[in-house]
Amino acid sequence: MALYLRWPAGVIYTVPQSQRFIRAGTRMAEYSFLSLLRNALSGNEDWKPAWRKPDPRPTYDVIVIGGGGHGLSTAYYLAKEHGITNVAVLEKGYLGSGNVGRNTTIVRSNYLLPENIRFYEHSMKLWENLSHDLNYNVMFSQRGVLNLAHTPAQMDEHARRGNAMRHEGGDAVLLGREEVARMVPGLDMSASARFPVLGGLLQPRAGTARHDAVAWGYARGADRRGVDILENCEVTGFLREGERVVGVTTTRGEIRAKKVAVAVAGSTGRVMKLAGIDNLPIESHVLQAFVSESLKPLINQVVTFGGGHLYVSQSDKGGLVFGGDLDGYNTYAQRGNLPLVEEVMSELLAMFPNLARVRLLRSWGGVMDMSMDGSPIITPGPLPGMFLNCGWCYGGFKATPASGWCFAHTIARGEAHPLNAAFTLDRFSRGILIDEKGQGATPKWH
Amino acid sequence: MLIACPYCGPRDLSEFTYQGDANRTRPNPMSNDQSAWNAYVYERVNPAGDHREFWQHSGGCRAHLAVIRSTLTHEIKSVAFAREAAK
Amino acid sequence: MSPRRAHNGGRIDRSTTLRFTFDGTAMTGHAGDTLASALLANGISVVGRSFKYHRPRGVFSAGIEEPNALVTVIKGKLREPNIPATQVELYDGLAVESQNRFPSLSLDIGAANGLAGNLFAAGFYYKTFMGPVAGPLKGTRFWMLCEHFIRRAAGLGRAGHEPDTDRYEKMYGFCDLLVVGSGPAGLTAARRAAAEGKRVFLAEQEPEFGGTLRWKSAAIDGRPAADWVAATLAELRALPNVTLLPRTTVWGYYDDNALGALDRVADHKAHAAIGEPRQRHWTIRAKDVVLATGAFERPIVFPGNDRPGIMLAAAAARYAAEYGVLPGERIAVFANNDSAYESALALKDAGAEIAAIIDVRAGVSVAARELAREAGGELLLGYAVTSTSGARRLREIEVQAFADGKVKEGATRAFAVDCLAVSGGWSPAIHLASQAGHAPQWDEALQAFLPPAPTQSWTGAGAFTGAFSTSAALGDDLAVNEPEIEYEPAPVFEIRPTAKKTGKAFVDLQHDVTASDIRLAHREGFQSVEHLKRYTTLGMATDQGKSSNVPGLAIMAAARGLPILEVGTTRFRPPFSAVSLGALAADRHAHFKPERLTPMHDWHVARGARMYAAGLWYRPMIYGTGGETVEQAYVREAKAVRASVGIVDVSTLGKIAVQGPDAAEFLDRVYTNMFSTLPVDKARYGLMLREEGIAFDDGTTWRLGEHDFLMTTTTANAGKVMQHLEYYLDCVWPDLRVHVTSVTDEWAGAAVAGPNARHVLEACVEGTGVDHDALPFMGIVRGEIAGAPVMICRLSFSGELAYEVYCGAGHGQHVWDALMNAGQAFDIVPYGLEALGTLRIEKGHVTGAEIDGRTSPRDLYLDWMLSKKKPYIGSAMVDREGLVASDRVRLVGVIALDDRPLQGGAHIVERLGEEPRGSIGHITGFCFSPALGKYIALALVKGGKARHGQRAFVSDPVRNRYGPVEIVSHHFFDPEGSRMHG
């Protein structure tokens, strides 16, 4: 039964039905404007933890290694879609300490290849209802992602991709120069522009979300369904019975499970080595991200540059959030170097020469698990009892819902869902590549 | 980062192009051992620690260098000409 | 009562009056003022509004850590938002605006947010705005509606849309020692290193060197500290091995001691001098670094601690001593350490009345007592400030007895003051060290994080290391006369009154994060330092938590019942303080990619060519002659080629000299087809794959000698192919005796194509025959054109009888002119990329649109080029199941059956429906074919050849173009090649 409130005038506000599935005893207060108001009046003293901080149990049905976006959403969908709630999520640091809190928050499904379009479209649909589903406002703002084109050939490439999206049921609009100029003031539309803007490909349903809220919302949602989230619980080894993986050793003791799933993005190489898997089609690279000081609204879409590699949007707080290429070398250090910083700023100003007086507030690095064709891996294996989710390259954040959804299916059923059937580990040896950028086995170019 | 090119001396990162993992050995060209080719083309050790890798001094002498560098600290442990290292 | 200029004192130049405007109101100040000191001198107490509650805020600090007094600096049409008033040097004509207020600073409707303070607590946004599950505002729409207004209320200053016309430049600096900070410790380190003959850079973020010595009363070697600074600076200035960098903030510490520094060259002037940039970005490579970055004073958190008039104690003292400005007439001091007593005396010396010194400690040092006595006013030991009042400026404070970390029940006392100077202890400025070190160390005595163990080559000095006194900073050589005060503070970070109803106690002033927000975060489980930061936004404002970080952590530690040591701190990330994007991009931003022009570029432009960007190159797209459409132009050009002769600039093709005894063997390995069998003076078309068996690049390679080849590549891939060859020679086959050299820029090239091409050459080439015997298909000859040596290869992209004529780049225009002259008799026509594309599409030749990094040679029907006699790069993997699968897209031709244009990127479907569905491929290139009289295209379509003759449809929803097509062979025109062999 849904509770209907009228707030504000004319808007019907409901408590989502998803609450029905919450296990007795784990129920926590629904978040709503009303609960905020009630708590405000009582001095905010009655709020409960967003998720419990339990001690590890000796055994679980499923262990998910990695308390980032993908690990948490996997646990959430295991509970929600498959009724598997005896699940632990193991996080070596604090929850969401990896790329889910380090990305530039872009959500889009504007891919070229059908395997990717279908997967990211599914993700988009989950995003569109995510705040309701989680009873947590992830601030998904469908403000549009605009890819600029600077040459006729680039317009054709954008048309090819936009058409590919449209033929898979996605949304894409090809804009001309004048439409772009109207939509994005501040762009260098001058006659002397080094990279003249001819037009762009807009995905109107794409946009941004509040990255930390996604981690916290999934954590709270999973916790409410009974999942144990174990922070500061670093995996130090795998328990084996013959080939089979039957659990893990951690800094908080030994934990056994029927199934062990790995979703650790940039740390994939490190974790899989503990299981004796020394080689994978993955390289870890650092990607830097940047945020400017807060400004009044200036850029209302996500805009990407076609003369190089750059993407910028403005957060609700007002900071311009942007990034560019990888630094381009293998690393596990969450820090980049100056040449790339200067390159990124040059590209941003080539596009927006009005931003020279805006100031950079903060920069940071995230470690990307770059795959050999630029597309992810969501698969059973490579060892019995084990499941692997990795290879997210730049695409991890927007994939969070679908990645967890597909991975949960794969873990629950022991085989891939059609949406992730192509994201196998053996596609490389078989030559069934999903090479979105057409750059081959050179991860830094994906 | 600063890479000590054996020709040109220590030079800034911006002069170099990363050319990837140097731990792999290309199979005999006549070989049709698909697992060996797969390992060469697609598989990486990707260590968290010292990594043997190629860098090209693309903004300088253009030589490829075999470098051992920590992927945890970016500290460079050794630099040699790739040609000599490969022989 | 309000702040005002003292009658005398300070280091400002009172003889120079500077005019400036604040929100349009004219004011004056003096040379040596900052905007903050000048505003205070003009009696301005409210300078800005806070981020969330829009509360009125005044100047809080005197330095880079300023959270409140942010302004937008206006220069003509250019706006520079979010600049701390403490960092703006006053100049005549300076214009600034306050921020984050509407309609005005004094009347701000956003302040209504403050009325619902508890509602807007940490986590507010995550718990609401989910909106309805049905109706017109379902999904994300309700949130986006709210977001529209939230975005406008948030944000600080407003940036403009005008392009910045100022210049920024970039410098590299190399030194033995970089000293960051020029206080007593920095000056001493610089002086020592300079005396040893080291090359020293001394960077100071403020306009003047000397740090605290410029306003502290300490005497050095019996003379005022400022005199010692002046003498030391004079000494350093005279040395050739010392570079002084004032107004230069070192903001980033990168690998191998590379540091980024921002030099604000001309920000303190109305106009930069001729040749001077506004700002200069330095990349400094230092063998060693001394971090002498000092320390930040931090506040104590108590209810009502954000009223204008409440500021850091040392800042208040600095305004008095350095700028001759009294931040208040009647001042109270609130402290948990001795340093505030020095500040109190400085304020008194400048003419303020000290109403009281309130100290949470029950006992203080003898030195402090002595300072308090000199400063006057009541000394209240074991007391704390528990509330404040005053609307737009502090009017009164209330104090209560305080012991054992708690406010005691009992009577309050009130003091009418207009300024409260607060000191909660000192935090070393360890930001750069944190970027280049391990985790910072908590020091229990100093109640501060001390610098971590370094991971790079730096050492620390002075207050940065926790040695806060001047004598410690200077070392043992100099006699310093300063009060012997104790810097160790009482571990008191927050005052929590016993009374229920009190004001908000702010930790992060700019972001309006209160102590109760931190406790709420704790209650909700956001307890790790990173969760605290992200959930409450503590320390994420423009001041990056320089003064709020430690109090915030202390409050969380108290809530968790843990020592601060175990709670830890967040890692400081670059930049240390904000850096303009313009400086980081420097002048490169329009030019970070160079433009490449062929030797004949000006000629093309003069002939009305519309230029087309092809990678870095510019190439003619069409040559416009009055009133033609693009299609009319290229059709005219292509027709002329097929009918008589045309000429096209092919200088942009990549050209690589492949030389050495093993050159032929190398090419056999690199190309799928054989080159060792190629005779000297012949050329051959070659195809390269990646190891994966995917097509990589194609082009012709000419054998100029037994060991000497000239490889051509596509324009787009020239650099990649070069790097590919170098990689294999260096890393895979070091035994091969081959050298590769990029010679793209050495040669200019022109392709002369058409049935009359040979006649054109005959008319101008000397020293060689060009007839079929002398120059057969794929043959090469050398000769001269108009006196310039040329190399001619007979090869064809257009399908016509055609020649590529190469000469030294310097002769390019000269030879081009000669070819044009010779062609006049045959109505030679220059043609551009569109006509070139038309001719190649008619022939079915592939380019980058088909070799897109995903297609295999079989997809392009180039399997005839895969040698079976030898291995080559890609040979081992080209037969994998995925690359020979039947559903791969393969090259076909397409003819529009509705006589309407097709476009690149359009898709092909088997049938048209309501919605675009069922793509079987896409168009890679199209043209109107003059030879066929139809719109034709090349396409990659599933099934390829098997579909020849089939009907399909073009489906181009993003351009709304649908229509019937026929799939045909990609060899549209002269499939036998009779014309080019003719």
List the topology elements.
The complex is a heterotrimer of chains A (446), B (87) and C (982).
Chain A: E1 4-6, E2 12-14, H1 33-41, E3 59-65, H2 69-82, E4 87-90, E5 106-107, H3 114-128, H4 130-134, E6 145-149, H5 152-167, E7 173-176, H6 177-183, E8 199-203, E9 207-208, H7 211-224, E10 228-230, E11 235-241, E12 244-250, E13 253-262, H8 268-274, E14 282-294, E15 302-305, E16 310-314, E17 319-330, H9 338-351, E18 359-371, E19 377-380, E20 386-390, H10 396-413, H11 427-430
Parallel strand pairs in A: 3-4, 3-13, 4-10, 6-15, 13-20
Antiparallel strand pairs in A: 1-2, 5-9, 6-8, 7-8, 11-12, 12-13, 14-17, 14-18, 15-16, 16-17, 19-20
Helix pairs in contact in A: 2-7, 2-10, 3-10
Chain B: E1 2-5, E2 9-12, E3 17-21, H1 34-42, E4 50-56, E5 64-70, E6 76-81, H2 82-86
Chain C: E1 4-5, E2 13-22, E3 25-31, H1 35-41, E4 48-49, E5 56-57, E6 70-75, E7 78-84, E8 94-98, H2 124-127, H3 141-153, E9 168-180, H4 184-195, E10 200-203, E11 219-220, E12 223-224, H5 225-237, E13 242-245, E14 248-254, E15 258-263, E16 279-291, E17 295-297, E18 310-312, H6 313-323, E19 325-326, E20 330-335, H7 339-349, E21 353-359, H8 366-375, E22 378-381, E23 383-389, E24 396-403, E25 406-407, E26 413-416, E27 419-423, E28 426-428, H9 431-435, E29 441-443, E30 448-450, E31 458-460, H10 470-474, E32 480-481, E33 506-508, E34 513-514, H11 515-523, H12 529-536, H13 549-560, H14 564-567, E35 579-580, H15 581-585, H16 601-606, E36 609-614, E37 617-623, H17 630-643, E38 646-649, E39 654-659, H18 663-670, E40 682-689, E41 695-705, E42 708-713, H19 718-732, E43 739-742, E44 747-753, H20 757-764, E45 765-766, E46 780-785, E47 788-793, E48 802-808, H21 812-823, E49 829-830, H22 833-843, E50 889-896, E51 907-909, E52 919-929, E53 934-942, E54 951-956, E55 961-968, H23 978-981
Parallel strand pairs in C: 2-8, 9-10, 9-16, 10-13, 16-31, 18-27, 20-21, 20-27, 21-22, 38-49
Antiparallel strand pairs in C: 1-19, 2-3, 4-5, 6-7, 6-8, 11-12, 11-32, 14-15, 15-16, 17-28, 23-24, 24-25, 24-26, 29-30, 33-34, 36-37, 38-44, 39-42, 39-43, 40-41, 41-42, 44-48, 45-46, 46-47, 47-48, 50-53, 50-55, 51-52, 51-54, 52-53, 54-55
Helix pairs in contact in C: 4-5, 6-7, 7-8, 11-12, 11-13, 17-22, 20-21
